[in-house]
Design goal:
By secondary structure, this protein is an alpha/beta fold. It folds into two domains: 260 residues, EreA/ChaN-like  fold (3-Layer(aba) Sandwich), CATH 3.40.1660.10; 112 residues, no CATH class. It contains 15 helices and twelve strands. A hairpin with a 6-residue loop joins strand 9 and strand 10.
């Protein structure tokens, strides 16, 4: 039966996709974002359907083909399916300030280093995505930008976040910008922005939490209703209004919770999901949104504990069927490990995994990339092997993500600066 299933899959994999055959896998002609013919992505469009939010995951942060294909899919979603907002796995505050600078005429590729996650800002493949955004803006077809990460590690946050928050509070809530309470809060926050994980003494932590609670009471108001004064909602939901600062304060609080507890109280992803929801629903309401992040932050159904959800599960619970997740996996080759910055071989896929079946189906095929949805699985419920999830959670097409692009052999990304 296994040989029969593999033979059937192999046959389906090398056949061109035909109208009405959405249940069979489809070969992807090229990962090149400049590939001239998008007909091989029509099954992808059918799988996305009318969803408003599409998350493009990545399993390694360091796969050359993953980044190229993600950029090609981003281009397709933007130019053919009217998605015009991109939210990156980068700091919420950093990306807000970068978005303003880009709208004022600067190039994102120029200002990304030190602010955008370095595997996007400093690799040739990540820069390809940034440069695509710059070209589209120059053509008058821009994508709006945002960052979902509650962990603020960018240079802009380190230098500007506290002074900008203080200036806002001086004008909006002066009592929260003066005195010992603000000074203690700022003294606790700055080390977080410099990625220092050593918890401060208990009294300083208590003072931080007390002032955070006061800030949240002042800034985190409900969405403005239809009877609000003209312009009030727009001001609150701008990149400089109360709601923006509410998200920033909550993000700093989440960073503190994780850092000071050695990730026992890991609130990063809960807040990442909350940030994405605010950006999509309040800053960019009604617009079609692409989220670009590691799959651990985008997949449905992942949680550390019942109160420590991964961001993808937070977003799924909020958007339901309007939220689609795309995953990428492989069965061989090498990637660049983003921690050591050294090439690293992918572990061998277990024999009973979906990846092993797909690799067998492509053994004698000219195609290097295969796309599929759960209805095309050779065996319903077949376990999936995805690098980095092997020991953590596993993952399954149709359960944790909606579309899978299988890449037969991965090669490492290249550091470009």
């Amino acid at each position: 039966m296994r040989r029969t299933a593999l033979a059937a899959l192999a046959l389906a994999a090398i056949l061109p996709h035909a109208q009405g055959q959405a249940s069979q896998p489809w070969p992807v002609a090229s990962t090149d974002p400049q590939y001239y013919d998008d007909s091989d992505l029509k099954p992808f469009a059918e799988a996305i359907g009318g969803a408003r939010i599409v998350a493009l995951g990545e399993q390694t942060h360091g796969g050359h083909e993953e980044y190229l294909l993600k950029t090609r899919l981003l281009k397709y979603l933007h130019e053919k399916m009217d998605f015009d907002v991109l939210l990156l796995e980068s700091g919420f505050y950093d990306m807000a300030r970068l978005a303003e600078r880009v709208e004022a005429g600067e190039k994102l590729d120029d200002i990304a280093p030190g602010n955008v996650f370095f595997m996007y800002a400093n690799t040739a493949e990540g820069r390809g995505m940034l440069q695509y955004l710059d070209r589209q803006r120059a053509l008058g077809q821009p994508m709006a930008l945002g960052g979902i990460d509650s962990q603020h590690t960018g240079e802009t946050s380190r230098k500007e976040l506290l002074p900008a928050l203080h200036a806002y509070l001086k004008g909006a809530v002066p009592a929260l910008a003066d005195g010992a309470a603000w000074r203690q809060y700022a003294q606790a926050v700055q080390p977080l922005l410099e990625m220092q994980r050593t918890p401060p003494p208990a009294p300083q932590q208590a003072a931080f939490r007390q002032h955070t609670a006061a800030l949240r009471r002042a800034l985190c108001r409900p969405a403005w209703g239809p009877d609000s004064p003209p312009g009030q909602a727009a001001a609150a939901d701008s990149r400089t209004g109360a709601a923006f600062w509410c998200q920033t304060v909550k993000s700093v609080e989440a960073q503190a919770a994780g850092y000071w507890s050695a990730d026992q109280d890991y609130q990063r992803d809960n807040q990442m999901g909350d940030n994405a929801i605010w950006l999509a629903d309040r800053l960019y309401p009604g617009r079609k949104v692409v989220i670009w992040a590691h799959t651990v932050h985008t997949a449905r159904g992942f949680q550390r504990t019942p109160v420590h959800l991964q961001a993808g599960e937070v977003m799924h619970r909020h958007w339901a069927a309007d939220y689609k997740v795309v995953q990428f996996s492989g069965a061989g080759g090498r990637i660049l490990d983003y921690v050591s910055l050294q090439p690293q071989a992918l572990p061998a896929a277990p024999p009973d995994s979906l990846e092993a079946s797909l690799a067998a189906s492509l053994a004698n095929s000219p195609h290097a990339v295969l796309g599929l949805t759960a209805s095309a699985l050779p065996r319903p419920g077949q376990p999936q092997f995805s690098y980095e999830y092997q020991a953590q959670r596993g993952g399954q097409l149709g359960v944790n993500w909606d579309v899978l692009f299988f890449i037969r052999q991965l090669t490492p990304v290249s550091m470009a600066r």
